[in-house]
Amino acid sequence: MTNPVKSVLGRARENKAPSGTRRAHAVPRPALAIALAALLASGGAMAQEKKPEAAPVPAWQSILALQLSSAHKCDLDKVLFFHEVPVGETVSTEGRARCLDGREYDFSRERAHEKFTLRLCQPTVC
Questions:
Q1: Residue 45 scores a pLDDT above 90
Q2: Taking a C-beta distance cutoff of 8 angstroms, is the pair 105, 121 a contact?
Q3: Residue 83: CB partners within 8 Å, gap ≥ 6?
């Protein structure tokens, strides 16, 4: 009296192949088309995503990193702060840098062509 509900695979199994050949489980064509369209759409969206570009590193910061590395075996993690102070026609740079191992150095430079003066920043205990 009641007809059992057949699954999609059940209907696909009922489709008989020509005599003597066996056919793998068929996937309904609309489902295949939808899956393919979803795959192509997600791939296209991923290709169009733009990663935020990092701000270019100033030349003095690269020189500071090299000087910290050679003089104090410090791999620069980040510059915590810096100030560029105009003095007459020149601009001096001063600030604080942190190494990957946690050490911090105060740095200063009077002119662009000079080396940085580096001082280890240590906490003061009273």
A1: no
A2: yes
A3: 93, 94, 95
pTM of the model: 0.55
Among 112, 114, 104, 50, CA closest to 85 = 112
How many angstroms separate the first and last alpha carbons of the chain? 94
Contact 97, 76 (CB under 8 A): yes
Q: Break the chain into its structural domains and give their ranges.
A: 8-48, 59-120
Distance of alpha carbon 41 from alpha carbon 35, whole angstroms: 10
Across the range 14-33, mean pLDDT stands at 59
Residue with tokens 């810096």: 82
**With bands split at pLDDT 50, 70 and 90, how would you rate the model's confidence at 57?**
confident
The count of residues in the chain is: 126
